[in-house]
Amino acid sequence: MMILKSKTIENYIYITTLGAGILISLLMAIIMYLAGMPLLNLILVELFLVLVLCWFISHFEQKVVVAFDRALLHIEAVKMEDYNQFARSDFKEGSSQRLHLALKDLSHHLQKNKSRYDQHAFLLYQLIDQLDTPIMVFNSKHQLSYANPAFMNIYDEPWQIYRHASPKILGLEQTSTGWRLNRTLQQWQISESAFIDNGEAHYLFVLTNIDSAIRASQLNAWQQMIRVMGHEIRNSLTPVSSLAESLSSKMQGAREQQALQLISDHCHQLQDFISRYASLSHNLNLQLTQVDMHSMWQKLSALTPDLALNTQIGIEHIHADQTFIEQVFINLLKNAHEANAKQVRIRIREKLGKVLITLADDGHGILNTDNLFVPLFTTKPNGQGIGLTFCRNIIEHHKGTIHIENNPQQGVTVSIFLPHKPLSNPAE
User: Fold this and answer.
1) What is the tens place of the pLDDT at every residue in 145-188?
2) 196 and 89 belong to one structural domain
3) Do residue 173 and residue 56 come from a single domain?
4) 332 and 264 fall within a common domain
5) pTM more than 0.85
6) What pLDDT score was predicted for residue 79?
7) DSSP letters of 64-123?
8) How many domains in the chain?
9) Are residues 256 and 296 in the same domain?
10) Inter-residue contact 344 to 335 (CB < 8 Å)
C-alpha cells in the first residue's frame, strides 16, 4: 500500500529496496536461529546485513536518479537554446540509453530549426532595412525593439533614441478602425501583424504614406480634365484667331483693326494659358547634373533685384536638373516678392543624409495652407494656381519632398529635401 502511494521515484526505490532487504534479513535470521547460531553471532550478522543493505539502497537510488538528473539538465539546456550540451547515460543499453539518445536527436533537430529560423530572421531584417517604408517592431510589453532606417522619415532621429518607447510616446493611437499616427501632417496607413521571436510575441507595424497615392489620384483627375478642356478650347480658339487675323488684314478702319487685333491677342493668351496648364499632364525627363549652388543663387539674385537674398551654403553642389530646379526657386522667389517680402534667408545644409534647402521670407504669409498644392487653387487675385503644383511635381520627380508653412511671427518658410546622392534612374 505504501508503495502504491509513493509520489516520487526516490521514495519508490527506497521503500521497495528497504522492504525487500528487511524481508531477506528476517528470513536469514530465522534460518540461522533454527540452525543453532549463537545469539551474539546472529546479531552481528544482522548488523552487517543492515549496513550492506543501506549501502545498496543508496547506490541503487543514486544510479537511477542520476540518469534522470542528467536528462533534466539536458532539457534545461534545450530550454535555454543551448543545443551543444548533451547528457550521457551510465547505461549503454535499455530505457535510460534510449531516453538520452532521443534527447540528443531532439537537440540536433531543434538546432537545425533554429539555424534555419535565424537565417530567415536575418534575411527578413535585412529586407526590412532596405525598404523605404517605415517599419517598427514592438516586443510583448509593447516597447519599441527595432525599426528600419526609414523610421527617420517620420521622427527625424534614429530609432535607437526611442528604444523601449511605447506606441503612445511615438504618436501611435489605437482607434476602433485601427492604428493612427498623430505625429505628422502626412497621412499614414498602418498595418499591424503579430509574430513569435525567441519564444515571445512581437508586433510588426508597417507604415505606408498614402499622401502620394491620394495626390496621384487627384493629379490624374486634373490631368484628364485639363486634356479635355485644352483640346476643346484649342479647337474653338484656332479658327477664331485665324478669322480675326484674316479680317484684320481686310479692314480699312483703325477701330475695326484694333478690335480684331484685340480678339487675336486674347486668343493667343488663352492658348498660352492652356499650354501652361497642359504642362501638369506631362512627365518630366530630368537631366541630372552637379548644380553649383553659389553660381545658381548668384544668377537668381540678379533675376530678383527687389529681394535681398541672404544665403548660407553648406553644400557646394546638389544632383538635380538645373533647368527645372532653377524654375522651382524662381517660382518660390516670385511668390515671396508677391507677398511683399523684402528679404529671403536661404540655407543649404545636410540633414538625415539628405540635402535640406530652406527659404524663409518676411512677407505677409499665406492665408490658406491646406490647399497650396491643389491644381487651379490660388489665393492671389490674378493667380492661376499652377506654380506650387508645378514645383512639387519637379521636386517629387527628384525623389524629394517640399513643405510650406507660415512662420510664427511673419512670412513663410519653404523646406525642400533632396537626395544627397545622384538618382540611378530618375524617371522611375
Assistant:
1) 989 988 888 888 889 999 999 999 998 988 888 888 876 656 78
2) no
3) no
4) no
5) no
6) 73
7) HHHHHHHHHHHHHHHHTT-TT-----S-SSHHHHHHHHHHHHHHHHHHHHHHHHHHHHHH
8) 4
9) no
10) no
The answer to whether the beta carbons of residues 246 and 257 sit under 8 Å apart is no
Cell of 28: 536469514
Same domain, 392 and 293: yes
Q: What pLDDT shows up at residue 373?
A: 58
Distances (CA, A) of 169 to 11, 41, 264, 418: 57, 87, 63, 29
**Alpha helix locations (H) across 251-382?**
254-278, 293-303, 322-338
**Range of the structural domain that residue 258 is part of:** 224-281
Give the residue from 336, 316, 349 showing the smallest Cα distance to 418: 349
Residues 74 and 102: beta-carbon distance below 8 Å: no
Cα–Cα distance measured from residue 148 to residue 136, given in angstroms and rounded to the nearest whole number:
7
Q: Which among 209, 242, 272 is the end of a domain?
A: 209
Query: Is residue 40 included in any domain, yes or no?
Result: yes
Residue 327 CA, chain-centre distance (Å), reads 33
Quote the pLDDT of residue 138: 92
Q: Is residue 424 part of a domain?
A: no
- Using N-to-C axis directions, what is the helix angle for 211-250 and 254-278, rounded to 10°? 160
Q: Is residue 182 within 8 Å of 174, Cβ to Cβ? A: no
Residue 269 domain flag: yes
CB contact burial 137-147 (16+ within 10 A = b; e otherwise): bbbeeeebbbb
Sign of the dihedral through C-alpha 6, 10, 14, 20 = positive
Q: Which amino acid is at 11?
A: N
190 three-class SS: strand
How far are the Cα atoms of 66, 91, 221 from residue 99, in angstroms, in the given order? 13, 11, 72
Say which residue the cell 536638373 belongs to. Answer: 321
332 and 405 inside one domain? yes
Place of cell 483640346: 231
Identify any residues that bridge with 360 across adjacent strands, giving them in sequence order: 345, 413
The DSSP call for residue 133 is: S
Contact 363, 336 (CB under 8 A): yes
Same domain, residue pair 255 and 355? no
C-beta of residue 123 within 8 angstroms of C-beta of residue 186: no
Exposure string of 346-384, with b = 16+ CB inside 10 Å and e = fewer, is bbbeeeeebbbbbbbbbbebbeeeeebbebeebeeeeee
Task: Tell me, yes or no, whether 425 lies in a domain.
Answer: no
